[in-house]
Design brief:
- The protein is an alpha+beta fold and 453 residues long.
- It folds into five domains: 18-102; 115-176, no CATH class; 178-256, Arc Repressor Mutant, subunit A, CATH 1.10.10; 260-329, Arc Repressor Mutant, subunit A; 364-450.
- It is built from 20 helices and 14 strands.
- Strands 11, 12, 13 and 14 form a four-stranded antiparallel β-sheet that branches. Strands 1-3-2 form a three-stranded antiparallel β-sheet. A three-stranded antiparallel β-sheet has the order 4-6-5.
- A hairpin with a 2-residue loop joins strand 5 and strand 6 (165-170).
- The protein is elongated.
Length: 453
C-alpha cells in the first residue's frame, strides 16, 4: 500500500484562522465604532451617513459607504438604524436612540429636500411616512404627527394650507402665487404701460386690456382678480352692465379726472343711451350706463367739457331753456338732395302712348354702401376689437376716389349707420393713417364703428 509522503498538517483544514472580511464589512465595523464614539461625544448626533463614513475612513468612496450601511452582519446591522435607504445625507443612529432619530430635525429636512421642488414646494406629511426604513416607520409617523399638531418645526420648514390640508413647506422654495394675484398684477402693469408716452391707446377697452395679457383667463379667474382689494382700488371699469363690460373703457383710479373726460367714454354712453326714438340727453341721463360710484366724477368731467366747449368731434349740444342737451352728430338728419323734375308740357298730347315703366337701378351710393357694409363685416372679423375698424383698411377694401369715399361715408353717418372715433391717445400715427383719417374740429377721425340701435 502506498502512503502519501506529504505532512499530515498540510491536509488538515485550517479551522483556527478567521475568514477574510470584505471591504464593506470592515468599513461597517469601523462605522459602528465611530457612531458609538460620536454618541459619547454628545455633538452632531444623530449624524448623516456621509459624515459617519468620513469619520470611520476618510478615503472611503460613497458607493462603499452605502454598501457598508446595508451590511447584514453584526455589529452594524444589529447596532445601527439607517433612516432612509441609499441616501448619504440621511441621518443614522444607534438602535437605542431610535426615538431620537425619528424625531430628528435633520431627518425631516432631508425628506423634504428630497421630495419638494421649485414647481412643488410643499409636501403632504402623510407621504413622508412611507419614505423611511421599515423599522423606523412607527416612531417617525408618531413624531411627525406631534410636530405638525404642535407646529414645532425645524428652521426652514413651515406649515401652509393647500386645498384645506396642512402641508409642510421648505421656505427657501417660493410658494406658487395664486393665479388671480398674477392676473391682477398683469392687468395693472398693462394699464401703467398704456398710459405712458408711446404706450398705445389709453384708456383701452376692457376687451383690449384682457387681450393684451396674451393669456386666456376663465371668467371665474377674471372675477377673482377684479375682486382683489388692490384691483378694486386701482382699476376703474366704467360700465355697470356686465354684458357690456368688454366695450367699457378701463383705466387706473389715479387717472379718474382724465378718464371721465375721455372722448371715447362720452361717445360710448351716448351710443348706449340712444334709441330709435330718443337721441337727445341731459347730462344726468348719460350717467345711467355707468357704475354708480362714478356718477359724480363723470358729471363733473362733462360739466368741464361743456363749460370749455371742448366736446368730442362726434358729439354736439343744444340748449333747451338754458340747459344742455347732448347728442351724437351722426344722429342729425338733413334733407336728402332731390332730382330736378322734368318739365311737363302744359298742352296735353292726345292719344300719346303711356310712359314706359320706370326700372329702379342701383345708384352709385347704394353700391358704395353695400361694398362698405361687406368690407366692414370682413375686417371686423379680423380686427382685434369688435365693431372697431380702421379707415386705412376700409379704404383699401373699398377702392374709391378719396373725396367720393368721404362723401359717401358721410351719408352713411348721417343715416345713422356708422360713427367715427378719433385717434386721440395714440402715439406715433403712421403716414398712411394720417392720409386715411378724416379731420373734423381739429381731431383726426380714424376708426369706424357700426351704430347700435
Amino acid at each position: 500500500m502506498l502512503h502519501c509522503l506529504y505532512p499530515s498538517f498540510i491536509l488538515q483544514p485550517n479551522f483556527g484562522m478567521p475568514a477574510k472580511k470584505s471591504p464593506a464589512d470592515e468599513l461597517a465595523e469601523k462605522m459602528t465604532a465611530a457612531l458609538e464614539a460620536q454618541r459619547q461625544s454628545g455633538t452632531d448626533y444623530p449624524l448623516s451617513l456621509r459624515r459617519l463614513g468620513e469619520l470611520a475612513e476618510p478615503a472611503a468612496p460613497s458607493d462603499l459607504v452605502l454598501k457598508a450601511a446595508t451590511s447584514k452582519k453584526r455589529p452594524f446591522a444589529g447596532r445601527v438604524v439607517v433612516s432612509v435607504a441609499k441616501n448619504l445625507d440621511a441621518p443614522v443612529a444607534l438602535v437605542d436612540d431610535l426615538a431620537a432619530l425619528a424625531d430628528s430635525p435633520r431627518l425631516l429636512l432631508v425628506l423634504l429636500e428630497t421630495h419638494c421642488t421649485a414647481a412643488a414646494p410643499t409636501c403632504d406629511p402623510a407621504k413622508l411616512r412611507s419614505k423611511v426604513t421599515a423599522n423606523l416607520k412607527p416612531a417617525f409617523a408618531a413624531a411627525l404627527d406631534r410636530r405638525v399638531q404642535s407646529g414645532h418645526l425645524p428652521d426652514g420648514v413651515a406649515l401652509v394650507a393647500v386645498k384645506k390640508k396642512q402641508h409642510l413647506h421648505l421656505t427657501h422654495l417660493p410658494l406658487p402665487r395664486p393665479p388671480e394675484v398674477v392676473l391682477a398684477e398683469n392687468l395693472l402693469r398693462i394699464l401703467e404701460a398704456a398710459r405712458a408716452p408711446g404706450g398705445g391707446q389709453y384708456p383701452p377697452t376692457f376687451a383690449e386690456l384682457i387681450q393684451r395679457t396674451q393669456v386666456p383667463a376663465p371668467a371665474t379667474l377674471l372675477k377673482a382678480a377684479l375682486a382683489l382689494p388692490e384691483t378694486k382700488q386701482r382699476i376703474v371699469v366704467f360700465l355697470k352692465d356686465a354684458k357690456l363690460r368688454d366695450r367699457s373703457p378701463v383705466g387706473l383710479a389715479e387717472d379718474l379726472p382724465r378718464l371721465v373726460e375721455s372722448p371715447q367714454l362720452l361717445e360710448l354712453v351716448l351710443t348706449l343711451s340712444r334709441t330709435a326714438t330718443q337721441q337727445l340727453f341731459t347730462p344726468a341721463d348719460l350717467k345711467k350706463p355707468l357704475v354708480p360710484a362714478l356718477h359724480g366724477a363723470f358729471a363733473e368731467g362733462l360739466q368741464r367739457r361743456l363749460a370749455s366747449e371742448t366736446l368730442p368731434s362726434g358729439v354736439g349740444s343744444l340748449l333747451l331753456k338754458g340747459k344742455p342737451l347732448l347728442f351724437l352728430l351722426s344722429d342729425v338728419r338733413s334733407a336728402l338732395p332731390t332730382t330736378t323734375p322734368l318739365p311737363i308740357s302744359s298742352v296735353p298730347v292726345a292719344n300719346s302712348a303711356p310712359p314706359p315703366a320706370v326700372v329702379s337701378l342701383p345708384t352709385q351710393a347704394d353700391d358704395f354702401a353695400a361694398r362698405f357694409d361687406a368690407a366692414f363685416r370682413d375686417l371686423e372679423r379680423q380686427a382685434r376689437l369688435p365693431n372697431f375698424v380702421s379707415l386705412v383698411e376700409l379704404r383699401r377694401a373699398v377702392p374709391c376716389d378719396p373725396a367720393a369715399f368721404n362723401a359717401e361715408l358721410h351719408k352713411l353717418r348721417l343715416a345713422g349707420r356708422y360713427t367715427l372715433s378719433a385717434a386721440e391717445g395714440r402715439h406715433g400715427i403712421r403716414p398712411e393713417e394720417q392720409d386715411a383719417g378724416i379731420v373734423e374740429d381739429g381731431a383726426l377721425l380714424l376708426f369706424v364703428s357700426r351704430k347700435v340701435p
